Amino acid sequence: MRYRPELEPVLKHLNLHIDPGEKVGVVGRTGAGKSSLVLCLMRIIELESGRIVIDGVDIKQLGLEDLRSHIAIIPQEPLLFSGMVRSNLDPFSEYSDESIWSALDRASMRTVISEAPAGLDTPVEEHGSNYSVGQRQLLCIARALLRKSKVILMDEATASIDLETDMQIQQTIRTQFIDSTVITIAHRIHTIIDSDRVLVLEMGEVKEYDKPSTLLANPTSLFSQLVKSQRKWNGLFVLIMKNEMSCHFGLRMMDILFD
Q1: Most exposed of 16, 74, 90, 228 (fewest Cβ within 10 Å)?
Q2: Do residues 9 and 1 lie in contact, with contact meaning Cβ atoms separated by under 8 Å?
Q3: Strands (DSSP E) found in 75-223
Q4: Alpha helix positions (H), 177-241
Q5: Contact 80, 127 (CB under 8 A)
Q6: DSSP-derived pairing of the beta strands 197-202 and 23-27
Q7: Residue 73 pairs with which residues in a beta bridge?
């Protein structure tokens, strides 16, 4: 994929498979092609060659509305518009109040909204300015939960959020999107350290694609180098190790990387 015919491709030679329900973290230095991947998945930019297939269907064969209605994207700047909480989560009035409250509950926003006298009819100011950035992201997550989206794209969604709120959002994603395929593009390594697999991009190409534990076990891997560059997050890794990465393994691996 390239942005203009005269420019070099920003994505090239990509060949990878993501299993249903898998959580994949995408990392790479600035300009590696991370956000370009999201643009391709949403068909905001069309491919020059190759194809993207979801459930056996080439997405180029789908109408844009059909494709985008089945994929939820949670960008770095959460998208809210002037109106009410209800209309932001359910703009076409497709869901019951019970379903909306359930989505808010699962996104850890029920208490915030229920404490407002108007409840679901609480006003949302332009761009959601009457809520914090973290709360706006949680409302976007509630929207995705309400739609029961099976593919979730997180594009640097927590880059502008403090660490405590980031951890809360990551916990929500881990527990509430169990059955969804989640592709998380992140700058902060701790955001994706417990993914099922990590995709490392460099200059628009796949350089590494494996379990984070496997990549970390190789101190010369690009992923290990990225972790080293963010050594200040060391203390957080222990909190979010999962399954194949026990806390003992995590501590040992961090000691090796940061020695």
Answers
A1: 16
A2: yes
A3: 83-84, 123-124, 151-155, 181-185, 197-202, 205-210
A4: 212-216, 222-229, 234-237
A5: yes
A6: parallel
A7: 153
Show the beta-strand stretches assigned E in 8-146. 23-27, 53-54, 57-58, 71-74, 83-84, 123-124
Closest residue by Cα to residue 113 from 141, 139, 143: 139
Return the closest-CA partner of residue 83 out of 114, 136, 124: 124
Residue 58 CA, chain-centre distance (Å), reads 22
pTM of the model: 0.81
User: Using CA atoms, how far apart are residues 66 and 142, in angstroms rounded to an integer?
Assistant: 21
User: Is the alpha carbon torsion for 64, 66, 71, 75 positive or negative?
Assistant: positive
Cα separation, 222 vs 238, in Å, equals: 21
Rg (CA), the chain: 19
> Which amino acid would we find at residue 46?
E
Task: Look at residues 76, 58, 77 and name the one whose alpha carbon lies nearest to residue 67.
Answer: 58
What's the token pair of residue 26?
Answer: 């995408």
| Token duo for residue 149 | 């989206």
Residue 151, SS3 per DSSP: strand
- Pairing between strand 181-185 and 57-58? unpaired
- Token reading at 47: 């491919």
